[in-house]
Design brief:
Layout: E1 5-6, E2 11-12, E3 17-18, E4 23-24, E5 29-30, E6 35-36, E7 41-42, E8 47-48, E9 53-54, E10 59-60, E11 65-66, E12 70-72, E13 77-78, E14 86-89, E15 94-95
Parallel strand pairs: 1-4, 2-5, 3-6, 4-7, 5-8, 6-9, 7-10, 8-11, 9-12, 10-13, 12-14
Antiparallel strand pairs: 14-15
Length: 99
């Protein structure tokens, strides 16, 4: 999409959407059917598992791994690995639990 940036050394899977003004820095690995929403930013050496959705304006710190089937909420900041699928929101991003 317009203004999206994908830097050197990044591998992009099939069916991936990198939306308007989103950025993926160097040496990232993006799985299949990932959606990186408007204005989301992934720092260098990030791994994103299949079927993951990264919300508008979310930020993922460098060297972080996100497993498959994860939803990162809009504006969330991911500062450590996510190893369990689910919905993560906030700063820093934490897993939502059902009430």
């Amino acid at each position: 999409m317009a203004g999206a940036t994908i830097q050197v050394g990044t591998l992009i899977g099939k069916g991936v959407i990198v939306n308007t003004a989103a950025s993926i820095d160097h040496d990232c690995r993006i799985g299949d059917y990932v959606h990186i929403a408007v204005g989301a930013h992934l720092a260098g050496n990030v791994e994103v598992g299949n079927g993951t959705w990264i919300g508008a304006g979310a930020v993922v710190r460098n060297n972080v791994k996100i497993c498959e089937d994860v939803m990162i909420g809009a504006g969330a900041v991911v500062v450590e690995d996510i190893v369990e699928n689910g919905v993560y929101v906030g700063v820093p991003a934490t897993k939502l639990t059902k009430r």
